[in-house]
Prior knowledge:
It comes from Sellimonas intestinalis. This protein is an alpha/beta fold. It has one domain (about 1-230): Rossmann fold (3-Layer(aba) Sandwich). Helix content is about 35%, strand content about 30%. The chain contains 6 helices and 10 strands; from the N terminus they run βαβββαβββαβαβαβα. Helix 1 packs across helix 6 (about 210-230), helix 2 runs parallel beside helix 5 and helix 3 crosses helix 6 (about 210-230). The longest helix has 22 residues, at about 210-230. The radius of gyration is 17 Å and the shape is globular. The mean pLDDT is about 95.
Amino acid sequence: MIGIIGAMEDEVAQLKKNMEIEETTEVASLSFCRGKLSGKEVVVVRSGIGKVNAAICTQILVDQFHVDVIINTGIAGSLDAEIDIGDIVISTDAVEHDMDASIFGDPIGQIPQMDTFSFPADESLVKLAKEVNEKANPDVHTWIGRVVSGDQFVSSGEKKEQLIRVFDAKCTEMEGAAIAHAAYLNKISCVIIRAISDKADNSAVVDYPAFEAAAIRHSVRLIEALVSEI
């Protein structure tokens, strides 16, 4: 079973529209939609914003729906000057950038007593997602690298530079690392896929409704093509 966690309501709605829905279940105020997408058994859900919502959502997918693969989609801010708005970033790994126990000697981002600094994506899923996106969305660039997540919207140049310097990440958002963390603890495959919405420094001037519509098109195309190959 494949779990798909979306961040944008319209994106989740489009995926549901394209599904053969068999059952909708409400758990912890979240709506889990189970059925078939691209011929595969999936559960689609919007987690809500932030790491706690994302982690709760992931654990429910594991406990109640017994998923063994999780795909997280949504938008993110770029941390690499070469990555343009609209491009797609696929995670190699994920770090919770707002975890700071450095006073005890841990590096920033390290969760104390965890056996890993970052939460890795499934390498085969990463490779497959890149190949699929290059075919499904040839009008945008596909990037692979680290995703950092925190319970804050990054909009200052100072914070952006810190994330680049400390984590060498490709993009920043608010849920992916929590999803990857929960997947790691449950020993299931996971990948984070994000469309770039801004430069994470408040400098971009974008027609957001137009961007969101394009991001949803790209995301839905990619998800459907990726699911069919898993």
